[in-house]
Each structure stands twice: as structure tokens, then as C-alpha cells.
Amino acid sequence: MTTYKTFAKIYDEVMDETVYEDWLNFTTRHIGDNPKEILELACGTGILSVELANLGHQVVGLDLSKEMIELAKERTTPEDDLLSFEVGDMLDLNKNEDYDVVTCYSDSLCYMPDEEAVQTVFNEVYRSLKSDGTFLFDVHSIFKIEEEFSEYSYHYQTDEFAFLWESYPGDVPYSVEHFLTFFVKENNQDELFRRYDELHEERTYTIETYQSLLKQAGFSEVKVCADFTDNQPEDESKRWFFICQK
Asked: In what residue span(s) does the Methyltransferase domain sit (predicted)?
């Protein structure tokens, strides 16, 4: 098992499973019941893609990590003609397909290094959508970055691994650095654990900045809401959601 496969399995275990149901409900609420062709960016191990396909949508899950995609493919069978997974970069959606819907959840856009990269993603998504297509995504709010992630600490352990997550303010405005440490049991025959470390850097922007970048990409209508609801963001909203129409 590669390092990233180990991380992916751990991520699935420590992730709150109910959040996938929240993303699913948010998506279906905004795209309707009729079958759609959907591209899920940053699909990870494919949990949401599978659920969307189970509802009758034609889904392509895309992720930069080959190891994540390998795990996602384990969720499929040869009979799954509505679901496929591909390794790919949201900064370069060099495909000829046109989609009814593109999604990008789990604050994946916050991993873009700067505004230029975010603009590139918006441009690529716009180009990949049909003329009346919908782009759904979420990002961390400024409150989440500056208040809740300030000196954030989370520890989780089982008999097979331990996971330590520490967060600190980043070097640029509205940014955070997540230091992740994993202690993973080598095998079932002994008590040896191997340590792995990762640094994750995220940043967000004002709602007005996202709206401006989306407008530059060509989106004609943008609605902003918060925390899996259709309500407008408030000062202490944690996650902003954008519903964008081409």
C-alpha cells in the first residue's frame, strides 16, 4: 500500500460521513431530479460520485491524486455504466465533454495557491459546462479560517493508527497551514507504527472576490449561501456555497 492510499483510507475514517449526505442534499436541491451529466472535481475516494450515480446521474469523478482515484475505482463494478473516475487537474480540464453540472466541494478550491489559480479553475469549469450549465462549489469562510482554525487541534486514534491535526495562521491574508501527522501500524504481527507527515495550505478570499472572478470567467448569475442551507452568509458562517449559472 502506498503512502497516499494509507492517507486516503484514514481520511475516510476520520471524515464525518454525514457531511457527504449534506453535500448530496445540497446538490440535488439545486440541480433537480432529471438525470444530469455531472463532473465532480476533487472527488477524493468517490463517495459523493457514487451517491450521485445511484440517483441516475452520469458522473465523472476527477482527482489529482492517482492513489485517491484507485481507491474510488474500488467502489465501482463493471456494470456501473453511469460512473467513472479519472486522474486529472482542475487547472487543466482538457476535455471535449460538456457537462450539465460541475461540482467542487470539501473546500478544495481553497488549496489553490492564489487568485490567478482560482480564476483558471473558474475559466476551465465555464468552458466545460453546457450553455445552461450549473457550477456548485464551497469554500471556507473568512470566519472559519481566522477564528475556528486559529490554533486548532484535533487528535483521533484507533488500534491501527493515530492522527494528529494542528492548524496555524498562514503567511498571507485569510490563509491557514494544517500540519497532519499519522502513526500507522505496519502490520498485524507487531506493535510498530510508521510516522508520516503532511503540510496542507489553504486560503480563502472575500465573497466579493469570488464573485468578481466568477464574473470574469463568464458566469451570468451567482447566488451565495452558507453552511449547506440556502440562507445568505452571516458573520459566523463557516462554509460558503456558490451556485453559478452559465
From this structure: 38-133
